[in-house]
Every structure is written in C-alpha cells, then in structure tokens.
Amino acid sequence: MEKSIKKYFPIFVLPTMIAFTIGFIAPFILGIYLSFCKFTTVIDAKFVGLSNYVKAFQDPTFLHAAWYTAAFTVASVLLINVLAFVVAKLLTKGFAGTNIFRTVFFMPNLIGGLILGYIWQLLLNGVLAYFGKTLTYTSAYGFWGLIILMLWQQVGYMMIIYIAGIQNIPGDLVEAAAIDGASKWQVLRYITIPMIMPSITICTFLTLTNGFKLFDQNLALTNGAPSKMSEMLALNIYNTAIRQNNYALGQAKAVLFFIILACVSLIQVRVSNKKEVEM
C-alpha cells in the first residue's frame, strides 16, 4: 500500500503544484522583475535597474509608513497577546457561562475589516467629538484608534488558541506545584507559560503578520489622514500604485514590504522555537 501511494504521489501532487505555480510562483517572480522596470502594463515593461528602489527609499511617506507600521505592530502584538492570555485564563476557571463569553469574544473576528473600520470610525469620532477632535486630528489619534479596533477584533481569536494551550496543561502538574508550596506567580512563570509556548508562538506569529499587513482597517478608519501621517505600509503601497498611478514604484515598495515581513516572521519563529526548546 505504501509503495502504491509513493508511486502515484506525483500524480496527486501535480495539479496542486501547477495551480500553485500559476497562482503564486509565476506572479511573484514576475513582480520581482517588474520592480526593476518602468511600466504601465506588463507587456511594455522597460528595465531601469534599481531606480525604483532608490525612489522608494527617498520617499518620506514610505519611510514614515514603515516606522508607523513597526510601532503599531509592536504595540498591537504585546497588547493583543497579553489581553488574550488574561481572558483565556479567566475563561478556563470553569464558572457558569464561559461558553457564552467565548462566543461573544470570538464574534468580532468574523466581521470584515472595512466594516469594522467604519463602525469604529463612527464610535471613536462620536467620543472625540465631545472634545472637539476627530481621529484624523493627529496621527496619534489614528494610531490608538487602530489599536483599539485590532484589540476588539483579534483578542477573541487569540483567546481560543490560548484556551486550547491552557487546557492541555496536565492538572496533576499544577496540583503538584501547589502542594509543594508554589505561589500563583510561580505556577504561571514555571508551568503555565512554558507549557503553552506553542500557543504563544502561533499567536505571536499571527498578530505580527496581521499588524504588518493591516490594510482594510487603516483604509476605513483614517485613510492615512492627516496628510498620510497615519498611513501604514500596505495602504502606502496601494496609494502609490493605484491612486498615484505609479505601478513601478508601488511594485518596488511591495517587494521591500515582502522582504521586511519575511525577515521579521523568520526571526520571530526562530526566537520562539528557541524559547520552546529552552523551556
């Protein structure tokens, strides 16, 4: 049976590989090539070397978007994971109605990013109107508006992953620690956190990539206002390529964005895996 599966394995894999090549690998390679060209359509691309990348690094809006995105991602990763873990711990205490609370916390993740952005734009602008301000008054207002939105959307999703990790901790281990006189802090530090490191790795990776790739919510909530000061990387690339009709520069920014995201993700996974081994 095993030999038969190995014999026909290429036949089963071939359709998927063809689809993956056509839908991802070929456009990805073409996109990298186009980032070194000047073009309006694919068929009129003219090779111009590194000029698009030079323009990208000389674009102050792109550099600001990079730092703004990095700051937002760090803040959102920390806050989302801490709050999701706290909520998960509370909802694994076994009190009545935990299933209802889990459902309520998870539901915002099912709402689309654009809809969430417009909903929170109305809510937050309604609150700020009391002080004579709006979300687009300064970039800081937009920054924390996005943080609140992302917390509301993603805490519930990450909570489910943390609950799964917490429920897999052997009860005997926790009871033994309590008998030995371990405090709640010691149980948390030396048992709970090491035992849920796989969950921490998954949640950190998801929140990290979601933070860097954020687009819909940024577009709906502030659209980069005021003066592109709350514009994140994905929105900056979209504005460059579509609204400014500069596809070549937008493609170069997209390649740089991919490199940044890939490096950050690889570093995060490597660090998390190292922590899992140590613990």
What does this structure look like?
The protein is an all-alpha fold and 279 residues long. The two termini are 40 Å apart. It folds into two domains: 2-34, no CATH class; 51-278, MetI-like (MetI-like fold, Orthogonal Bundle), CATH 1.10.3720.10. Strands 1-2 form a two-stranded antiparallel sheet. The chain has helices spanning 2-34, 51-58, 60-90, 98-106, 113-128, 139-167, 171-179, 184-195, 197-213, 216-221, 233-243, 247-278, and strands at 37-38, 46-47. Helix 4 (98-106) packs across helix 6, helix 6 (139-167) runs antiparallel to helix 9 (197-213) and helix 11 (233-243) runs antiparallel to helix 12. The radius of gyration is 23 Å and the shape is globular.
Layout of secondary structure:
Layout: H1 2-34, E1 37-38, E2 46-47, H2 51-58, H3 60-90, H4 98-106, H5 113-128, H6 139-167, H7 171-179, H8 184-195, H9 197-213, H10 216-221, H11 233-243, H12 247-278
Antiparallel strand pairs: 1-2
Helix pairs in contact: 2-12, 3-6, 3-9, 4-6, 5-6, 6-9, 9-12, 11-12
